[in-house]
Design brief:
The mean pLDDT is 97. The strands form three sheets. Strands 4-10-9-8-7-5-6 form a seven-stranded mixed beta sheet, with helices on both faces. A four-stranded mixed beta sheet has the order 1-2-3-13. Strands 11-12-15-14 form a four-stranded antiparallel beta sheet, with helices on one face. The chain has two domains: 147 residues, Aspartate Aminotransferase, domain 1 (Alpha-Beta Complex), CATH 3.90.1150.10; 271 residues, Aspartate Aminotransferase, domain 2 (3-Layer(aba) Sandwich), CATH 3.40.640.10. Helix content is 42%, strand content 16%. The protein has 17 helices and 15 strands. The structure holds 3-[O-phosphonopyridoxyl]--amino-benzoic acid (PXG). The site of 3-[O-phosphonopyridoxyl]--amino-benzoic acid has 17 residues, from helix 3 and helix 6.
Length: 460
């Protein structure tokens, strides 16, 4: 199927004529032509011209076990033959949803023992938003309607997810944020820390949560939502002082903590979940992406015993046709079995993440690179014309990052740019030899970008 395709130019033309891409300027893409990916294996992609590309983004932060695992295809085929679909709305259930919910309860930390299934990360966060508001209504505190989130956080692009996220570009389109959502500044020391030490800055940024709670009135706040490590925002790792202070504040005011583990879940940080790595105690956890290693769409909201007991006391008027889709659940179960039985999560923590860290941090000596940050298998470098002052480039934010990303793409390395940060999130199964290739291609691309931006007068 993937080898016998139309010529690239024709595919690109058809793509531009009929296929609308997410977060893409369609007219620009039409001029350039999309790169068409046809095959995959392990950490490698093949494009329609036969080029082999190292995918340092694991698709879109999701292909945790790597590409090409027949076991997942077989699990899907078996389930499709036996029971391709049945719903979970009207007092029925099925084996894959039951067994996956049980498994998630086992691997999730604390008492997150209850699972509401969704189709993606965005609609999981929509579920969470309705869920926390309904929880407080059911407890007789309907005035707890406000949810606090962070600028530059990412929680999806639905009305709820896009509102919870703090991406100004998303808010600018379609009437977002919806009412009752409030944002505080992010713990990005590199860009916003000024003269503070990272530790001082971490405390200061966490205390913005307390200020916002007091401004809104503590009795009106339902929840705070955040990613353990901001992914789409640029792999922003909060200073160590940040999360303990956040934890203290949510506890003090009895506010629910929603931890969005869409990227950080399923081994990405070296534990099953990012909140274990960062010692965070959530009331609700958002899962998607790595739950199936991206082989099929699935999202899940994991709830504490207390929240589930309140929600279960009433009919929660919410759900999706595909909540607990049997094929997606069967694939997730097989994915989790592989992560567990092949010791992939353990290997990330003990071996492969430390190796990636050692190599990634060598990039910090590059003239374009300021800080190099890494947690488990997600990492970033901040590009800067001046490491000492953490200066920004003369060009608008993202110009240099885009130049660097284009160089990576040309050098058959998929690395994303977020503004002027370069980020990676490779499959957890990447080998040490492949990490060496990743770093070699990253350095080459940085060198080429450096020459280009000097030639364009952007390095000053
Ligand atoms: N929460 C987090 C933390 C995410 O990273 C979502 C929710 C939404 O999930 P869905 O499945 O609805 O996409 C995400 C998704 C990027 C990029 O460019 C990141 C995501 C999605 C698309 C692009 O970094 N994260």
């Amino acid at each position: 199927m993937s080898d016998n395709h139309l010529p690239t130019a024709e595919l690109q033309m058809l793509d531009a004529a009929h296929h609308m891409h997410p977060f893409t300027n369609g007219d620009e893409l039409e001029k350039k032509g999309a790169r068409i990916i046809t095959k995959s294996s392990g950490v490698w992609l093949t494009d329609s011209e036969g080029e082999e590309i190292l995918d340092a983004m694991a698709g879109l932060w999701c292909v945790n076990i790597g590409y090409g695992r027949d076991e997942l295809a077989d699990a899907a085929a078996r389930q499709m033959k036996q029971l391709p679909f049945y719903n979970t709305f009207f007092q029925t259930s099925h084996v894959p949803a039951i067994m996956l919910a049980k498994k998630l309860a086992e691997i999730a930390p604390g008492d997150l023992n209850h699972v509401f299934f969704n189709g993606s990360g965005s609609d999981s966060n929509d579920t969470n938003l309705r869920m926390v508001r309904h929880y407080w209504e059911a407890k007789g505190e309907p005035e707890r309607f406000n949810v606090i989130s962070r600028w530059n956080g990412y929680h999806g692009s639905t009305m709820g997810g896009g509102s919870l996220g703090g991406m100004k570009g998303i808010h600018a389109q379609g009437g977002l944020p919806i009412p009752g959502i409030h944002h505080i500044d992010q713990p990005d020391w590199w860009s916003e820390g000024g003269d503070m030490t990272p530790e001082e800055f971490g405390i200061a940024r966490a205390q913005l949560l307390e200020e916002k709670i007091l401004e809104l009135g503590p009795e009106t706040v339902a929840a705070f939502i955040a990613e353990p490590v901001q992914g789409a925002g640029g792999v922003i790792v909060a200073p160590d002082s940040y999360w303990p202070e956040i934890q203290r504040i949510v506890k003090k005011y009895g506010i629910l903590l929603i931890v969005d583990e869409v990227i950080t879940g399923f081994g990405r940080t070296g534990n099953w979940f990012g909140c274990e790595t960062l010692d965070i105690q959530p009331d609700i956890m958002t899962c998607a992406k790595g739950i199936t290693s991206g082989y099929i769409p699935l999202g899940a909201s994991l709830l504490s015993d207390e929240i589930a007991s309140v929600i279960n006391g009433d009919e929660f008027a919410h759900g999706y046709t595909y909540s607990g889709h049997p094929v997606a659940c069967a694939v997730a179960l097989e994915n989790i079995r592989i992560l567990e039985e092949e010791g992939i999560v353990d290997r990330v923590g003990s071996e492969i993440a430390p190796y990636l860290k050692e190599k990634w941090e060598t990039l910090a000596d590059h003239p374009l690179v300021g800080e190099a940050k890494i947690v488990g298998m997600m990492a970033s470098v901040a590009l800067t014309p001046n490491k000492e002052t953490r200066a920004k480039f003369a060009a608008s934010a993202g110009t240099v990052g885009y130049i660097c990303r284009e160089r990576c793409f040309k050098n058959n390395l998929i690395m994303r740019h977020v503004g002027d940060r370069m980020v990676i999130s490779p499959p957890l199964t990447i080998t040490k030899e492949e990490i060496d290739i990743l770093i070699e291609r990253a350095r080459l691309s940085l060198d080429e970008a450096f020459e280009q931006i000097k030639a364009e007068g952007l390095y000053e």
